[in-house]
Amino acid sequence: MILGAAHIVLFVAALLCAVIGLYLLVVTIAAFGLKPNRRVPANYPSCAVVIPAHNEALQIGRTLECLARSNYPKDLFQAYVIADNCDDDTAATARAAGAAVFERTDPGNRGKGQALDWCFREHTEMLRKHPATVIIDADSMVEPDFLAALTARLLEPGVAAVQGNNSVANPLQHWRTALTGASFALVNCVRPAGLARLGTSAGLKGNGMGFQSELLAHRGWPAHSIVEDVEFGVRLLLEGHRTVFDLDARISSDMPAGRRQADAQRRRWEFGRFQVARRYIPALVRAMMTDRVSRHIGALMELVVPPLSVLALVEGAGLLLSFFVHPAWTAVFAACIAMTALHVALGLRYCRMPGRVWLALAAAPVFLLWKVGVYVGLVVTRGQRGWVRTQRDGELPAGGIAPHPRGDRHT
């Protein structure tokens, strides 16, 4: 009986790992066929750059300075900062740097999605003035051609939403930021590029998103979960709007090197993603039954695919258990591990990640143990309650020791 149960467990695990591994390998290979979009708009559209910010006085100035160096006509873009429930000098710093500032005070309804929804519904004149709207985070560094690349895609027929190439700015700071950089490369570049090449929706990744303003004027930002970007991307797809991906629209931000900072960030990402998956997987399956499968399969698989750390743990456990059950299962799980490893290797090569990031893969076992602790914490606390602001390294006191999070849900 025990042996029979082990075969069932291994069969289910092997089936899931094989489907996921094959999907990752297919989109990775497809990514190599995506060509950069080098076209420059003949007539640049007027663009609103919206920056939601909660207590970002130390970061917002650098972001606005970086944006000001864009290779884009200066009279055709304007930065708009949403100072959301701030109790620091975010608003004053943004105004001093030339941004228009919308101040929002609603302590009982915090969150990035809520702030964006409020902005698009309360400041419709901004959307009427600018036919293109770009959303970036308050700690972002944009490449000079970022706005031109993003708006060029929005000028293409039928394109209502674009996701830029969102990466980690400090992958060489620490082994943890190096592994986060590798993860961003695979999730925010390789997989969207592969999905774009296959003709399905690339999805939204939170930072560096562009939209036809008319789309936002009609909908606002109805996604209010703690991973509002993923949710809104799925909602748009279900409404018939495919998100395209642009390799040349490059944007980056620093990731936390400290364990406590990274813990808070990962809890938000992982639990929020689980919530969206639980809510929207049934809707995507129903849509696939009534519409073209190819339109929705990418979004469905992106919600089904777990973090690579979880996939590696399942594959490793399956391989270990197979030694005690049957050699055939050993071959199956070895093949699954090979597909996952090939996805990582090809993906890092596609993104031309530096050698030190490759070397940081040696710390993957430590990373896996850390992620197990994050998941245990989610189970113990019954999930992430709201948006917990990730403290930046520059905000740490001398010595780099972060105080306990205050529980702020930031935008």
- Fourth CATH level, the homologous superfamily of the largest domain: Spore Coat Polysaccharide Biosynthesis Protein SpsA, Chain A
Q: Counting H and I runs of at least 4 residues, what is the number of helices? A: 15
Rg of Cα set: 21 Å
> Which range does the strand content fall in?
5-15%
What ranges have pLDDT less than 50 throughout 5 or more consecutive residues? 397-411
Largest sheet: 8 strands, mixed
The overall number of domains is 2
How are helices and strands ordered from N to C? Answer: HEHEHEHHEEHEHEHHEHHHHHH
Gap from first CA to last CA:
52 Å
Estimate the helix proportion, in percent: 40-55%
**Which structural category do the helix and sheet elements fall into?**
alpha/beta
* CATH level-1 class of the largest domain: Alpha Beta
Q: Looking at CATH, which topology of the largest domain would you report? A: Spore Coat Polysaccharide Biosynthesis Protein SpsA, Chain A
The count of β-strands is: 8
Provide the residue-averaged pLDDT: 87
How do the strands of the widest beta sheet line up side by side? 3-2-1-4-7-6-8-5
Identify the overall geometry.
globular
Going by CATH, the architecture of the largest domain would be: Alpha-Beta Complex
